[in-house]
Amino acid sequence: MPVDVRDRTPPPCGTAFRCASQKQAGRRLTKLFLVKKSELRDAILQKLRQDLALQLKAADLARDEATNEESRARSKYDTHSQEAAYLAQGQARIAGEIETSLEVYSNFAPADFGPNDTVALGALVELQAGARRTWYFVGPRAGGLELSLDGRDILVLTPQSPLGRQLIGRLVGDKVQSPGRGGTMIEQAIVALE
Fold this sequence. Notes:
Blueprint: E1 3-5, E2 18-24, E3 27-33, H1 37-67, H2 80-106, E4 124-129, E5 132-138, E6 146-149, E7 152-157, H3 162-167, E8 175-179, E9 185-193
Helix pairs in contact: 1-2
């Protein structure tokens, strides 16, 4: 729920808050927003369910293609049905991984973090490199999942990922490095933690 601050001092934007300013009756109102972790978890679950439905449909189509009479090999060099079977197997494996992620996130209750806490599993972290700011959620699974919540684009990463390993145990103000284009390293500062 937004909190109204009616003084003239700037809010702590860029720390653990996202700010939106409005003018009302001649005075400035600044609303401070925190992402509710339950809403973030629900958004991750919804995205995982969508991905699972897509993978199951693709696996069914590939399985049908592999077992279809028209896909039967006509010569020893015809491997169409075998390729379709491999594809179906791979898609079914991905669907199984998504089902495991659904189970993990269904039982996962991420804690809230403040600007003085260290990054740990369940943290929502904002990194800044120059003028570019990006949000990451340190989750138990489903690294690489992208979603949008309350106007923020959030990328899920796991503690096992290169960036996740660097973030765990860090504080707001610490710096991490990630690979950029052309093999250069980009230094990013942790500017917010929720």
